[in-house]
Amino acid sequence: MNLAHVLNQHIADFNVLYTKLHRFHWYVKGPQFFTLHEKFEELYNETAGFVDEYAERLLTIGGQPIASMKQFLEMATISEEGNEQTGEEMLETLIQDYSLLVSQLKVGIEIAEDQNDHVTADLFIGTIGQLEKHIWMFKAALPVKTAVLN
After folding, report:
1. How is the chain split into domains, by residue range?
2. Cβ density class 129-138: b for 16+ within 10 Å, e for less
């Protein structure tokens, strides 16, 4: 897999995530509404920044970023669909999505380093740090599940 493909895959995933975060922002309900409504807005704004940063990096190294909804949906590895009804379900989905992105970014680091592109590897490393922090926060916001002993 070449680096242009890796960057485009992340551009696709971040665009799908951006839309999903908007959906969560609009449809979250319940006791966590005010907190999650604001957090989801913060996250979709951050994600828009990732899209721009990754597309500009791809252009810098001579590639062409994908730029249509059709391309995003064809190339994305995270799903745009979901039936999340509660804030808790939304957070659980984001834990899965962000964890998938982290694992893919780690593969991207290896590819970038194999191609001596330390700038792109550094971009991926920085993104991982941000996503891992969000994963930790999402998990901390979920209710603690206790084991039931018989």
Report:
1. 3-141
2. eebeebbeeb
Residue 7 and residue 26 in contact, taking contact as beta carbons nearer than 8 Å: no
- Quickly tell me which residue has 């999402």 as its tokens: 138
- Measured on CA atoms in the order 89, 127, 11, 43, is the torsion positive or negative? positive
- 18-76: pLDDT as tens digits: 999 999 999 999 999 999 999 999 999 999 999 999 999 999 999 999 999 999 999 99
Comparing CA positions, the residue from 18, 83, 80 lying closest to residue 55 is 18
Locus of tokens 């590897």: 121
Look up the pTM and report it.
0.94
Q: Which CATH superfamily is domain 3-141 in?
A: Ferritin, core subunit, four-helix bundle (1.20.1260.10)
Query: Which strand (E) or helix (H) includes residue 14?
Result: helix 3-27
Token pair, residue 135, equals 């994963």
- Dist. CA 34–CA 148, nearest whole Å: 31
